[in-house]
């Protein structure tokens, strides 16, 4: 087994932030495709299918990709890792499902806070349990404070958009909020599972390919049920850019699978959250949608998120939070 090399934090964290930049781009594209098709499940299935095609081409075109494809079945057959890790892509399908069915009810802001809350909490849990390839990481006071600050900063950054889509009373919003929280919570497990599989496959290319296969199976099954019940969606658009959502998913799934071994699940997730906020801010400035307003809270909340991630990432010495004795 030839596993990818570990990256130092100073190299890995910028990559995590960079991979997070692809998430809002994918969201903008998939949202537009869903509106064009008038079918969120169909849009998600198309997105995953284009991502799968990209990964098939990459796997066959690159020598390392071709060489490591042969490692997939032996690793699964020999139980090099729990076989359930093969269906990690279903978690990505759940995330897209949650996005498709709750953003219209909650609005983008509340959806973002819900998913970030779930992801940061589970990032601590997954690292503590040692599920990912980085092994067990202690739940220190600094890491907890960093997580709390991240959730607060994201809420502050998206606060100008609150009320943009949420409707109904609090009781009516409970179930729609729990779905993205659950999807965000499971994302950390997906990253840990992908990272472990990457070690045994020898490359994140194979792990990403398996993810897209599993996600496509889930989404196309759901779409088949929907077609049987409600009929087909609108025809597929001819514009090429509608089909870039899948390749964006290849970027952050592949990099996430590579980085969790070096950074751990929590720090990888926090870096992606920072990239997501930075990407959203850049999109709102460069390509604003109707009604978009970049408020000071958006900029300041994004900066606070970056500060919280640095706080959780730095190698603080033991006892850094203990009260120091006064100097006499």
UniProtKB/TrEMBL annotation:
Residues passing through the membrane, by range: 41-63, 84-102, 108-126, 138-158, 170-189, 201-220, 240-260, 267-287, 293-316
Pfam families xref list: DMT_YdcZ (PF04657)
UniProt keyword list: Membrane, Transmembrane, Transmembrane helix
Source taxon at top rank: Bacteria
InterPro entries: YdcZ
Official protein name in the record: Transporter family-2 protein
